[in-house]
Amino acid sequence: MSSHSNKQAKFLLSHQKLVIFLGAGGVGKTSCSIAWALHAANQGRRVALISIDPAKRMAAALGMKVGLSLTRLDFECQGQLHATMLDTKAVFDNMVKKHAPDEQTYQKILHHPLYVAASTQLAGPAEYMALALIQELVENPDFDHIVVDTPPDTQALEFLKRPNILAGFKENKVMYWLVKPFALASRFGMERLFSVGEKLMGGLTKVTGFQALKMVSEFLLLMQHVIDGFQGAGETIQRVLASEKTSFVLVGGSRKDSIRSAKVLCYELKEMGYTLDWLLLNKMLSNQIKVEVAQQQDHAESMLNRSFKSLVDRVTAEHDAFQVISQFTEKTCKMRLGIKLLPETSVGLIGKEDFINFAKNFELSASS
Amino acid sequence: MLSNIIDKKFIAVTGKGGVGKTTVAASIARYAQDSGKKVLFAEWAARSQIGPLFGLDQLRHQETELPCGLFLINLDPRHCFQEYVVDHLGLKKLYDKVFDHRLVKSFLQAMPGLAETMLLGRFYYSCVLAKNYDLVVFDAPASGHYLQLLTTPQAVLKTGIVGPLVREIENIHKFLEDPSSTSLYVSIPEPLVVSETMDFVPKIIKHSPLQLDSIILNRVQDGILAAKESFSQVGSMALERYFSELAGRQQQALQQLTQSVKSHFDMKDLYLVQELQGSLEPFLLEHAQAVMGVAQ
Hints:
The complex is a heterodimer.
Chain A: H1 2-15, E1 18-23, H2 29-42, E2 46-51, H3 58-62, E3 71-72, E4 80-85, H4 88-99, H5 103-111, H6 113-120, H7 123-139, E5 145-149, H8 153-161, H9 167-171, H10 174-187, H11 196-208, H12 210-222, H13 224-242, E6 246-252, H14 256-272, E7 276-284, H15 287-303, H16 306-332, E8 339-343, H17 352-359
Parallel strand pairs in A: 1-5, 1-6, 2-4, 2-5, 6-7, 7-8
Antiparallel strand pairs in A: 3-4
Helix pairs in contact in A: 2-17, 4-7, 4-13, 7-13, 10-11, 10-12, 11-12, 14-16, 15-16
Chain B: E1 10-15, H1 21-34, E2 39-43, H2 50-53, E3 64-65, E4 71-74, H3 77-88, H4 92-99, H5 102-109, H6 114-129, E5 135-139, H7 143-150, H8 152-158, H9 164-177, E6 181-187, H10 191-207, E7 212-220, H11 224-233, H12 237-263, E8 269-274, H13 285-292
Parallel strand pairs in B: 1-5, 1-6, 2-4, 2-5, 6-7, 7-8
Antiparallel strand pairs in B: 3-4
């Protein structure tokens, strides 16, 4: 099976432009995406690796400097490897600059207290900006392979659903019906509101207060062209995510929560019309260990050791995990690349050398 | 004693993904409930984690009582907002007419920070205003998103917006800062996880309004060295190596964390929790007791 999936891995490498790694927390998504990016660079591709997890763990894992803008990593390979962690504010500023109608509006937005909060601290825009950054990289001719490390499962789904979040805003013409009339009316201190939109906003003020809603509306009005721009970008990125050239890779482990997570992600990806191509079961015990566990069962039982019991639990869990996952994926999604097992590394991956070694798992033609 | 924590009113449990946050949070909730408290165990998840742990297929935004007397809920910020307007402000008509309108829904959905604020607000109402529960335990998001969530009220307050909603946010912020609200950070003895812990704990101490009570090192194993010795004697090389590496990682994690607690973590307590064995589903009282360090 391994040689089969490695042949298939070549497909991912030579045909795909965007590869997105998903999975539950703690399964090794970041490690797998780093290793895959190294592997791709080694095979001569010009790779951009980005982490959009706000936990910003990539630099620590690599033991190298990974900044908030794309930096070429010092790493000898056929191709190139650039990496970055998402800087929400920078991407946001960029989007505003691109879509603001003029310099004055751009400056006004940039210094608006609501913009400052939204671009630095609040959660929603971060996911949106991640998508914008991915789109930017996909369009960048300097790269031919983009690898994305995502936050843990639930949050990753949030981010994949993000392109739609402004859809209702546009379809329902919220700006036209709600925001604009209210912002204009409130500018003159009019508290008597006439149109449907004004009345709805008037109702909202009973909860938010007049001043708060006025501030928000005026800000949105200021942002109207930018919001249109976001909406357009959202539609584009959705096409990119659903494209033939995009593959989703699911990383799983043997713990029950990661199996459950893998199942949900399979479903959700399918629902959203995206293609899951490959499933990596990570941190698997070596065969040698499994053999010795079986051999030593009797000896170990007599010593009543809790650590050994934990290891036995793990062997069982791995066996079950593989069964459950292969049956499940067989039924739900025909993954083009099937399932690949990746071994647990001896001391955990820290530093470039460890990752270069770990990346070799993608090369080996057969490992049992 | 970790078990003393159940005297608080609100406890959020965070840590890197996959370290057993849910198990630790479930243990506190189940143990507190068994000690005679009325407890709500809450999560905010696209798919429920805590439901399956306690044998439920699904869990939605509805307080659900288990046979043992523990209450569970999977919070949905949109419902939190509805409860706020309808139940707490008593504005049902207004909600139906205005907030349920598709235009307004689209408007509110696009507001950054609103979902986070409403979620935290729900805890404030359950713990302080409604006083329905003695304790609310929150199986919180992983480190990065946790920090984003907890700093949302401050971010909104800093914008200079005024009005009744903002006064509520001030109350929510005060509730989080109150000593009866607290949090726990869960880690495990693995190098990457420990390095994330050393990175995040000082950030949480510095930026989160919710104070940090202590750090929990989960999945500690006793008997690793004994196992290593034993397999070395019978000549099982792979097993000897496995346990030897495991021992090294655990030892290193303990050293680093103990050192950090002294120098960077304001002397927070560090609790060691033994790895639980066998299946945790359904989650039993004995699991909770083992985690809380009160097992008989």
